[in-house]
Specification:
The protein is an alpha+beta fold. Helices cover 30% and strands 23% of the residues.
């Protein structure tokens, strides 16, 4: 099972800092996370357009899956996926 690590804002919706999900791709895993945690999680993770919120990035084993959160990225058992918040400013 892949292990997902949640930032504090998503932890408020999941009541967990991490969880395990079995999935072959990042997209499949995200669907399972939405099924598991429901509307509160989904509302935070997705924008109204249905796209992943532009401030979240997925990192698999410490490497960005891409700037555009490639939902076709393959996952393996024992992968650790961190959902990080991108913060900008000046």
């Amino acid at each position: 099972m892949a292990i997902f690590l949640f930032p504090s804002i998503l932890s408020r919706a999941t009541n967990e800092k991490k969880t395990e999900i079995t999935a072959k791709t990042l997209g499949e895993a995200v669907e399972k996370l939405v099924e598991k945690y429901g509307q509160p999680f989904s509302k935070l993770l997705f924008e109204e357009s249905g796209e992943i919120n532009r401030y979240f990035r997925f990192y698999v084993k410490g490497k960005s899956v891409s700037e555009f959160n490639d939902m076709n990225a393959p996952l393996n058992d024992e992968d650790e996926i961190a959902i990080l918040i991108i913060i900008g400013g000046g």
